[in-house]
Amino acid sequence: MKPWPYPGLVAHRGGGSLAPENTIAAIRLGQSLGFRMHEIDVKLSKDEVAFLLHDSTLERTTSGKGPSAQRTWIELCEYDSGLWHSEAFRGERIPSFEAVAKALQEKGTMINVEIKPSPGFEARTGEKVAEAAAALWRGSAVPPLLSSFSFEALMAAKRAVPELPRGFLTRDIVSADWKRLEDLEVDSVERRSGAYFSKNIRLSRHVFEHSISAWLNRRTKCSRQVGTAPNGRAGANDRGGRRSSRQRRAGTIAFASGR
Question: Right CATH number for 9-44+109-255 from 3.40.640.10, 3.20.20.190, 2.60.120.10, 3.30.300.20?
Answer without folding.
Answer: 3.20.20.190
